[in-house]
Predict the 3D structure of the following.
Amino acid sequence: MKRRGFVKALAAAPAVPAVLAQQTAPPTPPSRIPPAAVETPKLELGIPDDVADMQPRFFTASQFAALRKLCEVLMPRIGDAPGAIDAAAPEFLDFLISESPKYRQTLYRDGLDALNGEAKKRFNKVFADADASQSAVLLEPLRRQWTYEPPSDTLARFLCAAKQDVRTATVNSREYTAAAASGGGRRGSGVGLYWYPLD
């Protein structure tokens, strides 16, 4: 028995290297694809904020126009420091208020409607079309003496809240922060709290 096993092993010995050679042979190269077909296309990229036009999604067109005018009056551009319009504060507030609690949404909607209503009553035009002297008259509630109790009047209560919100949205914007960091604008307390540059 042992001799038979030995003879069988000797007979199979020449076939082993051939089988191993077949298993370890390198694969045949695939058909060559032209390099131009494999290269990744180079696409021009843009920052969405730079190319997209914002459409108000919460406020009506007349409310948003009044909000833009209010932002322009409350935080105008001064020298190289961007104003609320440059900082896209109205667009940010449209988003912020759309995600705010119901009472805040009601305050803004009713307040902007009251502002437009008061402009029509006094000057027969919407607030967005008011000139500087007419805007000053309509924003008179902001000059009243501050008290601990919020104003009972809808318009006055809205204007107090909007004044703070417009300022906060402006000084925490990328535009304002960049201008302050370069030394070209006013240095507000909000600088560096919201936007950070990406390397």
The chain is about 55% helix and 0% strand. The CA atoms of residues 88 and 170 lie 8 Å apart.
